């Protein structure tokens, strides 16, 4: 790729120099049949030099390559956690083909991101403090190296699509629940391919809107999710990598006890007879309890708690346990052929 | 409009030094103006996509199911034995449907009910939630009809299908990822009359996250309902392995209308068969052999035999549809259900013979032994040429 336009974040001296090159290139290409004016030219020109190819030591059949996004002029790279990081050697290859040893400097076990450092200066980068607030239907470009198609000094691959929606992620990685359960940008660009994780999702103007996350399977659909961590989440980690604490999972026994306490306070008992799938039927409602006053009855099947669907007794416990104390509580329950909305002023004490 | 200002300003700022240096260098200036308008166009497209989604969104229904087992699929292995295969594991998340009538019929994909759930609820765009009853399933078009007890519901505007062309914008929408509003995918119409004529094909993404949801045009009007179906598989999850591949299908609303009328009676739609084995393969283009589909063998006491059809007859018409090649026959059959009585016309030694026959379910017709010397076209869709033994 000989055509390179001025990079916004380059030092001004360099910028001026590149402008001359740019001028020459533009005049030449314009007189020689017209330059390409695809709708994403600008976004691609900005994105490609800011995305790096990463290579690590493989483990068994594990893929040991990925993508990363430059987030500082001095060579900080954010990427998604993968086994690639566990090996001894880790290399980052820039868009111009130059290759550097990368050092792992921080991890975010909740968002499953990692921060790497290469020893170079004056690099083009994305400013993660800027959030362009994309919305559903906005065009986006994914810039990454799925299947390590790009090698050597080839720039990473780009693919176009739109922002599909914003939603909270509910996913698993292999057999385990995926730690990140916050908001993600869903896209209709297929970014769940091996090697794409850590790549950039940019809008049509070339602003970074998200970093492609580790490939995970949605627990809602059992399909690979095409998602990116919003730039604000990436910034939380990148700007204060040492402040990120591992979100340890709370003690399940204590969690269950807290949920049971809530149920007791509300005055209801679930019909939990064991088995693999336990639909949350209400077994008993204590007379004159909060739940009873609100209209809950025995044999009701709880469908949703504060708009979150619950399919099992455990879902109910998880939902109740997660509620802030003294907040309003709404339940959708199925009673015979009706769906009844039950509203309580308070979810009880914690 | 005010939203666009910063965009233009931002670009102008970047352009300023360039323009100063160029000082009237027209070719480069033109190139960048083109880039600006292309960027602005993308911003406007977002508004167009969102407007399309907003128009149809009130008719998109979230479906939740409770209970039910995981489906296993029985398949024939290479040796011909029936084995239970690992099938796509259905998840617990919500799925998508489309309001079909003002009084609470919902059309969706039968993919969403493979697990035979004990309880189904439907949540409307305004948050109202109802217990839904599964009225009937369509085993051919992979549809399911649900009913909720309410009135005065919105129904989707329909896209005119006669104007539908490959390359025009097409969008899919679904609630499967649990987003508050439907998740959108944008693409184009890739093909028409796919899957025996029932479906439009699109490169907008389709997956369990939007099976049962709408395929809409750029005006927000319904083209069809997304289903997994791909290839010749006949079970309810056939085609799911192609999810998010850019090869997706939606049953077009002309067929949805027809099938809705049949399904609302409460009887499942099963494929109807004629009880015949047809000639191997398709006629090659330019082949001047006689038109129609030649009957090779007939099932004992099957619909075709009962109607007096014979081997070597050529089917030239079924239910008013002209039949020239096997695809025409498959397309005609796809619009017909077992139990329906239809007219058939065959060519027998140059004479046209008409008859009426009642289609039956495949499992109600005795199997036809394929001729041992000549493998049937059906079991070998892609005949592999076998080299002649050398003398």
Describe this structure in words.
- The complex is a heterodimer of chains A (350) and B (391).
- Chain A has helices spanning 12-31, 41-47, 231-239, 252-266, 290-294, 313-322; strands at 51-56, 65-70, 76-80, 90-93, 99-101, 103-108, 113-117, 139-144, 157-168, 171-173, 176-177, 183-187, 200-203, 208-212, 217-218, 227-230, 268-270, 282-285, 301-305, 308-309, 329-335, 338-344.
- Chain A has six helices and 22 strands.
- In chain A, helix 4 crosses helix 6 (313-322).
- The longest helix of chain A has 20 residues, at 12-31.
- Chain A has 350 residues and is α+β, with helices and mostly antiparallel strands.
- Chain A folds into three domains: 1-36, no CATH class; 38-248, Thrombin, subunit H (Beta Barrel); 252-344, Roll (Pdz3 Domain), CATH 2.30.42.
- A seven-stranded antiparallel β-sheet of chain A has the order 5-4-1-2-3-7-6, covered by helices on one side. In chain A, strands 8-9-12-16-14-13 form a six-stranded antiparallel barrel.
- In chain A, 19% of the residues lie in helices and 30% in strands.
- Chain A is elongated.
- Chain B has helices at residues 5-22, 26-56, 194-197, 253-263, 303-306, 326-334, and strands spanning 60-66, 73-76, 82-85, 95-99, 105-109, 119-123, 129-138, 143-147, 169-174, 183-193, 199-202, 214-216, 222-227, 248-252, 276-278, 293-298, 314-318, 321-322, 341-348, 351-358.
- The longest helix of chain B is centred in the N-terminal third of the chain and has 31 residues, at 26-56.
- Helix content of chain B is 20%, strand content 29%.
- In chain B, strand 19 and strand 20 (351-358) form a beta hairpin.
- Chain B has six helices and 20 strands.
- Chain B is globular.
- Residues 1-29 and 375-391 of chain B have low confidence and may be disordered.
- By secondary structure, chain B is α+β, with helices and mostly antiparallel strands.
- In chain B, helix 1 (5-22) packs antiparallel against helix 2 (26-56).
